[in-house]
Amino acid sequence: MVTNFYPKCLPVLIGSLPLFNHAEGVKWVFEYTPEIPLWVQLPAYKEEGMIAQFQSGSPGLKLETDKSFIDISDPGFDDDLLEFYEEYMAVKEGETDLEKSRFAMAADTAKGFFSFLDQLQTLSDPPVAVKGQITGPITFGLGLTDQNGKAVFYNEQLRDAAVKLLAQKARWQVKNLSRFGCPVIIFFDEPALAGFGSSAFITISRDEVINCFEEVIEAVHNEGGLAGIHVCANADWSLLLESATDIISFDAYSYFDKLILYPDLVKRFIQSGGILAWGIVPTLNSDDIEKETADSLVAAWEEQARAIQAIGIDKSAILDQTLITPSCGTGSLSLDHAKKVLVLTRQVSDIIRKKFLSI
Fold first, then answer.
1. How far is the C-alpha of 318 from the C-alpha of 321, rounded, in Å?
2. Contact of 237 with 258, CB cutoff 8 Å
3. What tens digit of pLDDT does each residue of 183-223 get?
4. What is the pTM of this model?
């Protein structure tokens, strides 16, 4: 865990926006969260879906008009798998340039990333930090399937390849963003974690989940970045709190009461330098977005912060180790609701920082 980054309640976004233009997305980001900007994902483009955006480079990948899958029945699959591991080892050992490998992200699927780089190059001073994101290994492994529709997570060999693919793509992001002279944060987006422990995922073990996390987090750390895990629903929070992640990004608006059920682990996480990214601004329900104000959300956050204090954490540590975020991405919202979420995220951060940090 990296412990020398203190965001002091600055705002940061989750990633997706309901726009069709990446340049406009960059403009929104720098208008509302210039201190910790991020590259945007626009779900309006199918190639920017959670699986599609990061699947390139997978061994055995077949792309058809309406779907993509790993074809392990193809006669050339074993050779492709061998080539994947050979290239992975060459990149990891520095024999092959990561930038020229299959693990580099491309402009046709990650236009938001390259638009972000262009904007960062125009800045006279570096931001406080920059943020990237990638689909987490559990969600990716359960979303990508073989030719028979079986999730690759259930095939040990394919799961291992998928985790290594994501680890290196995350590392590639850190490497490209590090040149701007500020801390780099990478969030692993894990909506599928909400299903862990349910009958749907009964065959997935805790150790398998932990091992997947450790590998991708280690890749980010080895490149000098901070790793975060984002879950926009309820989850077994002990999985995250006991991991090596630096940041836990959660839907504080709806699920803080579930997180605080692990007081000892929350206390240990914060005392170890861990950062809580409080998704205090709702995104799931349009009625919630319409009814809430910056003041009402600040009041909710203050109540939650008092609950953290009650388990033995000093308020100054909470303030130092807090990010203010939307509860999830805004890609599925209307433009008006998405804009309000960004406005509220900025306002909530500003009010808290002025009230408690005199900033």
1. 5
2. yes
3. 999 999 999 998 776 666 778 889 999 999 999 999 999 99
4. 0.96
19 token code pair: 């726009």
Residue 226's pLDDT band, with cuts at 50, 70 and 90, is very high
290 closest CA partner among 237, 333, 233? 333
Query: What is d(CA 133, CA 122) in angstroms, rounded to the nearest whole number?
Result: 22
- Written as one letter, the residue type at 108 is D
